[in-house]
Each structure stands twice: as structure tokens, then as C-alpha cells.
């Protein structure tokens, strides 16, 4: 596609966009009486205008029915979580019995590691990406230490090569082969939070399985962002939050994927709770845990209805928009953003912005991370003052993520104009 750094071009692209009306389904933060350029859907997605209606329905039923709402609410609370697998299976690419909505992301990560990180004297290592999200790092460290191993030895981080910003896939595969006999678990982020790199989940999984290790992924920055086919790729497990690209509210309820071959194995070790107990006999309240033979068997507690209602409001929009159309627009938006950033560099005659996100569209999603070579904090503060909501990461990276549900090509063009002025 031939891009142009012109507002007229961007507006023409928006007129041709089959998803353009979805922007009106969200509240856009305001600046000076106009819509902000909101580029932080990778941190917190915007609120659908229907969210309050969905949540209010549950509040009204609670007010009218009290405890009877578990069975008699408009959307009965007892089986409320069962409405999500059909929708989420399309977003993460799995079977309905492999996905469940529950808890928060790091809680789920720990629960999954109970089942899939079971170290032995021979196999005890976890292979992960360097500069994983801090919460993941802390989960790895504490799980390893809990089992009596030294994190410095048991956690193997794969780094970019010297002078490079992204991790080469061949280096990940090489590390798995090198440590294969001592590796219990390969656990990466789906998309790295810092540089926006989308890892090759299928080849990483294959390499882990060849050496006899499990493969799992934190999809916080991948779910609702990039194309996923977890079941077909034979991934063992994954977890994600819902408040980024899935627009389900700050701290929103999270999700879990467990491959069917593991989900049906009710003998698999886990930390259990009563909501994971076989449904037909759950209320007999008997001793002896009997797991549901699906991903639901990892549930601990009954559903957080208000948070799930907000989640449902967003997933209904995803259903209507369709993942194929969302992925197509996402690719065009990020391509246009890269074009605009390159244009900004050309105008200055020097490289002020170094894009550290992969250029290959198969290796990135919405997010583009800009390593600022000069005046990074000044430019970021200037963006904020002019109505651009972006994200700063120390020491000098600005993260921006045009999201296909509510961002426009005009947003991208305006962003470029503001960056140009600030650089000048």
C-alpha cells in the first residue's frame, strides 16, 4: 500500500475502513474538548459504552433478588462463567473446553506453574525471555525458590544479541536445545511488553516438546491483539489479563487456556478450589477433590460477576467486529504508524527515533516501541500536553499502540504531526 503523510489520505483510509463505526462504541478521553489520540490500549483498553449497562443489569438483579440471583438473574450467576468459552475460543484459537475465565493474571500463572512446573533433580530449569514482565519474573523466581532451587541457576534468560533489540527465534530454539535435558518448562510472553516482539509460539512449543519440556505463555499483550491458534500449535497452557486489548476494565478478570490433553487429566497436580469441583456433586460439600475434566477444573472460587459483566460487554463487540477484520486493520494501522515514524526521522536528517519493534508484520501486533535517541522524556511530556496518551518505559522508550477497534488512521497521522513539531 502506498502511504501518504497527509490528513486527507488518513481520512480517506478511515472512510474505507469497514470497522470505522466501532470507534463510536467506546468512550474516548478528551483533551481541550476533542478526542485524545489514545495509544495505550496495550496498557488499559478503553471502556465500551455498553459496559455500564451490562454491569447495571447485575446490580439491579442483585438488588431485586439477593442470593436468588445465582439462579434467577437475567444472566444467572451460577453458570455465568460458561458464557465465555465460545467467544474466547475464537480470540485465542482453541476448543471451548480448553478455556476458562477466572482470577487475575499472576494468580493464574502461579496456579498453572503448580501443574506444569514440577522440577526434578534432572529437570528443573525454566527458559524465558530476558526482560520478561516483572510480575512474570517474580513468579518464576519464587516458584523456583519454593522448590529449593537457586533462581540464578534454574532460570535461563534468552537475550538479544549484542547491539540488537529483539531476540532471534533461532537463539531461543538454540537455548532450548542446549539446556534441553535439564529443562522442565519453557515459558515466554506471547508479545514482549517492552519492545512489542511477537514470538514464534509454535516453533518454541515444538522445540520444548522435542526436549521433553512443557511450553506455556503469558498472553497479556497478545490476547485480543495478534492471531493465535493455541490448540493447533499444541501449546500446553497459557494465561492472560483482560484489561489491555480486551477492554474489560482496570484489574479485570483474567483467562486461562489448558490444552485438552491436560484438561481431561483430572489427576494432574493443582491447587484446587470448590468451583473446580465436578458440577453435579459440587454442593454435596464432600471431602476429596474431583476436578471438572475441562479447563474449568482449575477454578478456585465462584465467578466475580461485576467484573465478568464488563468483560462480556467487550467480548460482544469482538464477536460483532470479527477477528479476521480486526487483524487486517491492525496490520494496516501499525504499517502506517511505522511509515509515519520513518517520515519523522527523514525530516530531521538524523535518527531521533529507533523503532525496536520488529518490522516483520508476523513478529509484531499493535504496539510499536520507539527508542528515543534524543530528548525522549521532553518529547513524551510534549505528547501528553498535546493530547496524546502514550506510555513511557525507562530509560528512554515510548510505547504506542493503535488499536483497531477504536483507533483511526487520522489518529496516526495526527500523532506524526505532533512528533514532528516536538522534534523541531
How would you portray this structure in words?
- The protein is α/β, with parallel strands linked by helices and 424 residues long.
- It is 37% helix and 13% strand.
- It has two domains: 7-47 and 322-423, Aspartate Aminotransferase, domain 1, CATH 3.90.1150.10; 55-320, Type I PLP-dependent aspartate aminotransferase-like (Major domain) (Aspartate Aminotransferase, domain 2, 3-Layer(aba) Sandwich).
- It contains 14 helices and 15 strands.
- The protein has a seven-stranded mixed β-sheet with strand order 4-10-9-8-7-5-6, with helices on both faces. The chain has a four-stranded antiparallel β-sheet with strand order 11-12-15-14. The protein has a two-stranded antiparallel sheet with strand order 1-2.
- Helix 1 packs antiparallel against helix 14, helix 2 runs antiparallel to helix 11 (305-321) and helix 12 (323-348) runs parallel beside helix 14 (409-423).
- The longest helix is centred in the last third of the chain and has 26 residues, at 323-348.
- The two termini are 28 Å apart.
Strand count, sense and barrel status of the largest sheet are: 7 strands, mixed
CATH superfamily of the largest domain: Type I PLP-dependent aspartate aminotransferase-like (Major domain)
Number of domains: 2
Shape: globular
Question: Looking across the biggest beta sheet, what order are the strands in?
Answer: 4-10-9-8-7-5-6
Rg over CA atoms, rounded to whole Å, is 22 Å
Arithmetic mean pLDDT: 97
Q: Order of SSEs, N→C?
A: HEEEHHHEHEHHEHEHEEEHHHEEHEEEH
The tally of beta strands, per DSSP, is 15
Terminus-to-terminus distance: 28 Å
CATH architecture of the largest domain: 3-Layer(aba) Sandwich
Low-confidence runs of at least 5 consecutive residues? none
Helix content: 25-40%
CATH class of the largest domain: Alpha Beta
User: What is the CATH topology assignment of the largest domain?
Assistant: Aspartate Aminotransferase, domain 2
Amino acid at each position: 500500500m502506498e502511504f501518504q503523510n497527509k490528513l486527507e489520505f488518513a481520512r480517506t483510509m478511515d472512510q474505507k475502513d469497514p470497522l470505522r463505526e466501532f470507534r463510536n462504541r467506546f468512550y474516548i478521553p478528551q483533551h481541550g474538548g476533542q478526542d485524545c489520540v489514545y495509544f495505550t490500549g496495550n496498557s488499559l483498553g478503553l471502556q465500551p459504552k455498553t459496559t455500564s449497562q451490562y454491569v447495571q443489569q447485575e446490580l439491579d438483579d442483585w438488588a431485586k433478588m439477593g442470593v436468588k440471583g445465582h439462579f434467577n438473574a437475567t444472566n444467572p450467576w451460577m453458570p455465568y462463567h460458561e458464557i465465555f468459552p465460545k467467544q474466547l475460543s475464537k480470540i485465542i484459537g482453541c476448543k471451548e473446553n480448553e478455556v476458562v475465565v477466572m482470577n487475575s493474571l499472576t494468580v493464574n500463572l502461579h496456579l498453572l506453574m503448580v501443574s506444569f512446573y514440577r522440577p526434578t533433580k534432572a529437570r528443573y530449569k525454566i527458559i524465558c525471555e530476558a526482560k520478561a514482565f516483572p510480575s512474570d519474573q517474580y513468579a518464576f523466581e519464587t516458584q523456583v525458590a519454593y522448590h529449593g532451587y537457586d533462581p540464578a541457576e534454574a532460570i535461563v534468560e534468552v537475550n538479544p544479541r549484542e547491539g540488537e533489540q529483539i531476540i532471534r527465534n533461532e537463539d531461543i530454539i538454540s537455548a532450548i536445545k542446549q539446556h534441553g535435558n535439564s529443562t522442565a518448562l519453557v515459558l515466554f510472553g506471547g508479545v514482549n511488553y517492552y519492545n512489542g516482539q511477537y514470538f514464534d509460539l509454535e516453533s518454541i512449543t515444538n522445540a520444548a516438546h522435542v526436549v521433553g519440556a512443557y511450553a506455556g505463555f503469558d498472553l497479556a499483550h497478545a490476547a485480543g491483539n495478534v492471531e493465535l491458534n493455541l490448540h493447533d500449535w499444541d501449546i500446553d497452557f497459557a494465561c492472560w489479563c483482560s484489561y489491555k486489548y480486551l477492554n474489560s476494565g482496570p484489574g479485570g478478570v483474567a483467562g486461562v487456556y489448558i490444552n485438552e490433553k491436560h484438561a481431561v487429566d483430572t489427576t494432574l497436580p493443582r491447587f484446587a478450589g470448590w468451583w473446580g469441583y465436578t458440577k453435579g456433586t459440587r454442593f454435596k460439600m464432600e471431602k476429596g477433590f474431583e476436578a471438572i475434566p475441562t479447563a474449568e477444573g482449575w477454578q478456585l472460587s465462584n465467578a466475580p460477576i461485576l467484573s465478568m459483566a464488563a468483560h462480556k460487554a467487550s467480548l460482544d463487540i469482538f464477536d460483532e467486529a470479527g477477528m479476521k477484520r480486526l487483524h487486517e486493520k491492525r496490520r494496516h494501522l501499525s504499517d502506517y504508524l511505522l511509515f509515519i515514524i520513518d517520515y519523522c526521522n527523514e525530516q530531521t536528517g538524523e535518527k531521533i527515533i529507533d523503532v525496536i519493534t520488529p518490522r516483520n508484520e508476523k513478529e509484531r501486533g499493535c504496539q510499536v516501541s520507539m527508542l528515543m535517541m534524543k530528548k525522549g522524556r521532553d518529547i513524551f511530556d510534549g505528547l501528553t500536553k498535546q493530547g496524546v496518551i502514550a506510555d513511557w518505559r525507562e530509560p528512554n522508550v515510548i510505547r504506542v499502540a493503535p488499536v483497531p477497534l477504536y483507533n483511526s488512521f487520522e489518529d496516526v497521522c495526527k500523532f506524526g504531526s505532533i512528533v514532528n513539531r516536538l522534534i523541531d
